[in-house]
Design brief:
This protein is α/β, with parallel strands linked by helices. It folds into two domains: about 10-125, Response regulator (Rossmann fold, 3-Layer(aba) Sandwich); about 140-230, Arc Repressor Mutant, subunit A (Orthogonal Bundle), CATH 1.10.10.10. Helix content is about 40%, strand content about 20%. The protein has helices at about 15-30, 45-50, 65-75, 90-100, 110-125, 160-170, 180-185, 195-210; strands at about 10-15, 35, 55-60, 80-85, 105, 140, 145-150, 155, 175, 220, 225-230. It has a five-stranded parallel beta sheet, with helices on both faces. Helix 4 packs parallel to helix 8 and helix 6 (about 160-170) packs across helix 8. The longest helix is centred in the C-terminal third of the chain and has 18 residues, at about 195-210.
């Protein structure tokens, strides 16, 4: 990393001391700054005091669970969140992603894999320079700087939601199958299901509807997939 640049700060929310120390070491070797929180009740106050660049969030925490933390976080912040969990049941994954988590990693995991995920999300979620909305189009996206506008109004999207919207924008009016969207959102060959896409579409549709109330910005085509209608 550039020595003159401010190192991205990673908040590690993990109550297993050895695992927290392991992730701290790997991240710092890659040039990140870190701090660790073990009690779920301390997370939201810490984020409000010093917003990190990204959060690694365990689900099973003393004081307050990770899903509850993520749910409150999304009420005021689009901070990238990677969930770390030993709860591998599909419903837990879907629930975590459905409330705004950007990614998940199941325990046991490779610290190198987590670092790679962190780098990938931060690369896609750069907020250095906001894009200017395109006055000639109702919807404009700048993936490099993680910004999107609908009817000139800024959208507050997670990195994964922004990528999903960009995919749907590739060909206006085209119906994209769930398999296509899954294959382009998750290029690391992890096992995910159609319900994962449905969860992200639901969240994205709701955010578009805050700008256009009563509209159906993303149409569901039964048995086929989804189409952007703007």
């Amino acid at each position: 990393m550039n020595a003159q640049a401010v190192a991205p700060h990673i908040l590690i929310v993990e109550d297993e001391p050895k695992l927290a120390a392991l992730m701290t070491n790997y991240l710092r070797l890659e040039g990140f700054s870190t701090n660790t929180i073990a009690d779920g009740r301390e997370v939201i106050p810490a984020v409000r005091t010093r917003a990190p660049s990204l959060m690694l969030l365990d689900l099973m925490l003393p004081g307050r669970g990770g899903l509850d933390i993520c749910r409150e976080l999304r009420q005021f912040s689009e901070l990238p969140v990677i969930i770390l969990t030993a709860r591998v049941e599909e419903i837990d994954r879907l629930l975590g992603l459905g409330i705004g988590a950007d990614d998940y990693v199941c325990k046991p995991f490779s610290p190198r894999e987590v670092v790679a995920r962190v780098k990938g999300i931060l690369r896609r979620a750069s907020l250095s320079v906001p894009a200017v909305p395109d006055a000639t189009s109702p919807l404009s996206i700048d993936e490099q700087f993680h910004s999107a506008y609908l009817d000139g109004e800024a959208l507050t999207l997670t990195p994964l939601e922004l990528r999903l919207l960009a995919l749907l924008m590739q060909t206006p009016g085209r119906i994209f199958s769930r398999d296509y969207l899954l294959g382009h959102l998750y290029d690391d060959h992890r096992v995910v299901t159609d319900r994962t896409i449905d969860s992200h579409i639901k969240n994205l549709r709701r955010k578009l509807q805050t700008v256009r109330p009563g509209s159906e910005p993303i149409a569901s085509v039964y048995g086929v997939g989804y189409r952007l209608d703007l």
